[in-house]
Task: structure prediction
Amino acid sequence: MNGRIATVMVHTSPLDQPGVGDAGGMNIYVLESARRMAAMGIEVDIFTRRTENVSPDIIEISQGVRVRYFDCGHGILTKEQLPAHINGLSKEFLRIVKEENFVAIHSHYWISGKVAMLAAKELGIPLVHTMHTMARVKNLNLAEGEIPEPMIRVQGETQVAAAVDALIANTDSEAASLVSLYDACPDKVHVVAPGVDLYTFTPGAGRKSARTLQGVDQDALVVTFVGRIQPHKGPEVLIRSTFELIKHSPALRPKLRVNIIGGSSGANTEEVERLKELVAWFGIDDVVRFAPPVPRAELPQWYRAADFVCVPSYSESFGLVALEAQACGTPVIATAIGGLRTAIADGISGVLVDGHDPKAWSSVMARLLQEPQRRVLLSVGALEHASHFGWDATARGTLDIYDQVITENRALAKTVRL
Result:
């Protein structure tokens, strides 16, 4: 195929630091897949909402990939506040793209899908959409006390699913949810697995070197969580599991170190402080340590230094953190749910846990901490499993879908003219 792709992700910029605010795995997904598509000869413009007056209209981040800011409601807005601006964003996006020549639009997350719908319809451009997460799936798997996703999101996702030319799901499980929960046409649903940067996330010089650089004792037992600090990601599960672990295996305490790396997300601005208070209340602040989001270039060292990484999410469309950790040779313990069942090979590259019972989690953690030989075997399996998920494969799969919808759109336009 030839031509440029207009990618839309209005509620967060691909340049934002993952783990802060609304930035997360989607930011990495959009940026990495765009870079790989550009390397294959397809130019990509990523449209996002301007939040600061100082942002230029266009930033070229690599050959063939540009981030383009457009205006509608200046200032910092959470994704919960953005639906009120969808109409204005849609009109502004249409004004920009109708003056240029894009062969397809690819929207990410439901708000972007709603924004892109008007331009796709008015200009007759195929619209491809990736949900990343879905309200109905999240609402079926809420953390204790977590506020359900609003009906406006459910309705918006349903409208997007009905309007697009193609839906890209991360896994077969997500594809099934699109059909069963949103009545999406099965013929329009495609599965393309996300990837991991296999050039950055590597075993490097190994765990010993990583711990030396971080000043961590070589005989320490290190458990790490990386992600946005919000109930749905499950950091509280890890904290409560650590408390249970220390209670039934006190001998592990002197060497145990649990890292929680990330920042507050969306409306949960006080979540980090709440969790710190919980840690203090449990009396485990000598074990559990909080760290702000880590730049991408430094993140591999945190993974390498860990004995294993925990991903106790309540739902995940895939779980990029799990892949990144495994690519560094670090096993993962994760919830047996959603895309994590694909991202982790249970018993080979890590361990999947049913549910979020802290006692069950602590039992799995204790066994793995006390079995170094098993961790070595899982580390080997982690490297092999992650090797199948490069971003090049994600880009090729996505380009095949673009090619299909563009061809079908042109054939339909030709039929209408006749």
User: Anything to note?
Assistant: The chain has a mean pLDDT of 93. Residues 4-195+391-417 form a domain with the Rossmann fold fold (CATH 3.40.50.2000).
